[in-house]
Amino acid sequence: MPEATAKNLSDFQITKFTYMFNAFFDLEQNGLIEHDDIMAFGERMTKYTGWAKDNEQYKKMIDILETFYECVKDQVKAEYLMEEVTKEEETLPWEEAFVRYTDIQYNTVPRMSLKQWLNMWGRLCYGAAGISDFPIWVQLLPELFFDVGDRDGDGVLSKDELKNFYCKISGITNPTTLDRTTNEGYRALTANGDYKLNKQNYMFAFANFLLAKDIYGPGKYLYGTFDNREIDETYKVCYNDDSD
């Protein structure tokens, strides 16, 4: 992990955002998010959903991914402007320094590193209390994930759909782990079955995924791959020392 990275994020948030970076967007595993990676993610979702390219959901997905890529480009530029530079770089004209930093012309093929990704989320999460506090491109991501997960298109993620998402997208293939994670995940995401996992509730859970600093909370179960030891352990209450 790079030093002085994403100082506003907890270790668990860094784990979650690193998972998103690696599992969803860095499909070439070269440590960078590029346009081809984002489109490859779209193709992966298309294969899972079976959407035809003339399908309205497919077109919406492409629009969301292209919007996301435009934001990646803006964030790359913002990251460069906000990062500390060496004394050598300080003497370069901005255009030359930026090209050196990205190894490419900014308007041609910008790419985002994991460090930039984590710094971006550290800034976005700072002071945020809910999904509405994030820019629109962040709010579009759970829309996309929900539509992908809702394979029958009825507006609600069923337990079977959550299980299929865990298996095919999150990569939980061990049958025992898959069943236990699905049971606990669906329980957490529906408040013991009191609520349906519709798009509105999915958006709330996604905000919890972004903002929760520890392992407790339903948001982490959107993808199911994180520290799930609370399934077997009781919640540990931390008491302040009497001298504090």
What does this structure look like?
This protein has 244 residues and is mostly helical. The protein folds into two domains: 9-126, Orthogonal Bundle (Recoverin, domain 1); 132-222, EF-hand (Recoverin, domain 1). 56% of the residues lie in helices and 2% in strands. It is built from ten helices and two strands. It has helices spanning 11-25, 35-49, 56-82, 87-90, 94-102, 114-125, 136-149, 159-170, 175-189, 199-211; strands spanning 32-33, 112-113. The chain has a two-stranded antiparallel sheet. It is globular and about 45 Å long. It starts with 10 loop residues before the first helix and ends in a 33-residue tail after the last helix.
